[in-house]
Amino acid sequence: MTNWLDMPPVWLVGAMALAWGLDRLAPGLGLGPWAPWAGAVLLAAGVAVMVLAVAQFRRFRTTIVPRKDPSAMIRAGIYRWSRNPIYLADSLILAGLILWWGALLALPLIPGFVWVIQVRFIRGEEERLAAAFPTEFPSYCQATRRWI
Question: pLDDT tens digit string along 19-73?
């Protein structure tokens, strides 16, 4: 059974809420006039990467749900550049919003979020992929980085 409260989108929304709250605690500690523009670029990039990655899951008809066994290993499209483009997209979205809000105190949430995702989700997903695709997955790991 899947615990729907322990899913990457929930962690992302939690990090976003915490970032917003930190910005409200210390307003005026902005990052400068460049930050909203950089935030908008990262936010748009995150959404674009997410759309491309989800399209590949649909194309290969495999589960997008963490902790479920994959029926296919995706190496095409955005997956040629990142083994985890959805998590990369989540991180870009979080970073984009933090910059958009100018939430200086929230910047440490980005590496914290990446660490949580890697420990709670990526490691298990990689184990399932290695078990399901014992010859293909190691060569994919050699050719494609985990994040970028």
Answer: 999 988 887 667 888 999 999 999 999 999 999 999 999 999 999 999 999 999 9
The answer to whether residue 32 is domain-embedded is: yes
What is the pTM (predicted TM-score) of this model?
Answer: 0.93
Identify the domain containing residue 63 by its residue range: 14-143
CA 41 to chain centre: 16
5 belongs to a structural domain: no
Q: Which long-range contacts (CB under 8 A, 24 or more apart) does 35-41 make?
A: 35/99, 35/100, 35/102, 36/99, 36/100, 36/102, 38/96, 38/99, 39/95, 39/96, 39/97, 39/98, 39/99, 39/100, 39/101, 40/96, 40/100, 41/96
Would you say 47 and 103 are in contact if contact means Cβ atoms under 8 Å apart? Answer: no
Show the 3-state SS of the chain: CCCCCCCHHHHHHHHHHHHHHHHHHCCCCCCCCCHHHHHHHHHHHHHHHHHHHHHHHHHHCCCCCCCCCCCCCCCCHHHHCCCCHHHHHHHHHHHHHHHHHCCHHHCCHHHHHHHHHHHHHHHHHHHHHHHHCCCHHHHHHHHCCCCC
